[in-house]
Automatic annotation (TrEMBL):
Name the record gives this protein: Lysyl-tRNA synthetase, class 2
Species per Swiss-Prot/TrEMBL record: Parafannyhessea umbonata
Positions in coiled-coil regions: none
Pfam families registered for this protein in UniProt: tRNA_bind
Chain ranges of the TRNA-binding domain: 51-156
Superkingdom of origin: Bacteria
Length: 156
């Protein structure tokens, strides 16, 4: 991990931002002062720690990912959540990702949400994503973590 003094945040005319040696192009990483600045939802009201603690967030490995037939939005994920039993989660992110690019990735899911039937398939959890707008266009990034983190690792 980079030390604080090694972290750089530079805006250039080309819209390139550099953070700890990583390069992000375009307005995605440009920050609030740039043209085409991202729009985010307002912060929600505070919750107490006990309420937060009820969410069981786990690292999951994507074993398989396929488009759900007759749906333009849904992807069906088969996940290793570390429990020894494969978990199925549906997520409406097909407009942002093709299924084959997600196989093998390491993602974060809330695993203690009751199953919800979508397109006749039980979805047993929720994948975490970041959502924002740039110039009126919605953007989404599925939260992915280091592949070295084992399936089932709990997030606090």
């Amino acid at each position: 991990m980079a030390e604080l003094e090694d972290v750089k945040d530079v805006q250039t005319e080309e819209g390139v931002v550099e953070v700890a040696g990583a390069e992000v192009t375009g307005t995605e990483g440009a920050g609030a002062g740039a043209a085409g600045a991202p729009t985010i939802e307002p912060l929600m009201d505070d919750i107490d720690f006990d309420t937060f603690s009820k969410s069981d967030m786990r690292v999951c490995k994507v074993l398989d990912c396929v488009a759900v037939k007759k749906s333009k939005k849904l992807l069906r994920f088969t996940l290793d959540d570390g429990s020894g039993t494969e978990r199925t989660i549906l997520s409406g992110i097909h407009m942002y990702y093709e299924p084959d690019e997600l196989v093998g990735k390491t993602v974060v899911a809330i695993v203690n949400i009751p199953p919800r039937k979508m397109m006749g398939i039980d979805s047993c959890g929720m994948l975490l994503s970041a959502v924002w707008e740039v110039a009126g266009e919605e953007r989404l990034s599925l939260l992915m973590v280091d592949d070295a983190i084992p399936a089932g690792a709990k997030l606090y």
